[in-house]
Design brief:
There is one protein chain. The chain has ten helices and two strands. The chain has 154 residues and is an all-alpha fold. It has one domain. A two-stranded antiparallel sheet has the order 1-2. A hairpin with a 2-residue loop joins strand 1 and strand 2. Helix 3 packs antiparallel against helix 7, helix 7 packs antiparallel against helix 8 and helix 8 runs antiparallel to helix 10.
Length: 154
């Protein structure tokens, strides 16, 4: 069995790589295929390029939001799946940080074409990235609260 953190980091690098690291080749191939399809259909690489060059309005115009909305859930599910398959997250409710991060990043995608921070439009890359932080915080808090409740009941 591989190290859960190693599997997680491979999935962060590219969805499906963590599954390959765990020896789950068919599942890994599925995640890689889905990532490529969603990436191409959403124009995600072009959105990233434009965002890194400060062309936020062009990034918003290039984004296919109907496809972009799939990306956070696919990405974070692949991360959780590889982490769990490698033996991580064995305690109850360990999935909450992943689920809540996917939720918050998806909401960030929804509002990315209009949300401004300090008068600056953040766009479809920067706002979703910022939404990772509250997603992890809320998901971890929910996990801790539920684990305490389970311990009190036993």
């Amino acid at each position: 069995m591989t190290n859960p953190k190693e599997a997680l980091f491979w999935s962060i690098a590219f969805p499906g790589f963590g599954q390959f690291n765990n020896g789950k080749y068919l599942k890994g191939l599925l995640f890689i295929t889905l990532e490529i399809i969603v990436n191409v259909k959403a124009h995600f690489n072009e959105i990233i390029r434009l965002s890194f060059n400060g062309e936020i309005e062009n990034a918003i115009a290039q984004a296919n939001y109907q496809w972009l909305m799939f990306y956070p859930c696919l990405y974070l599910f692949a991360m959780w799946d590889s982490f769990r398959d490698a033996g991580g997250g064995t305690e109850r409710h360990s999935f909450f940080p992943f689920v809540m991060t996917a939720y918050f990043v998806t909401v960030g995608c929804i509002y990315s074409s209009s949300f401004k921070l300090f008068g600056t439009l953040l766009g479809p890359v920067w706002l979703p990235i910022l939404c990772v932080i509250p997603g992890l915080i809320v998901g971890t808090a929910i996990r801790i609260i539920l684990q305490k409740r389970v311990r009190q009941e036993s």
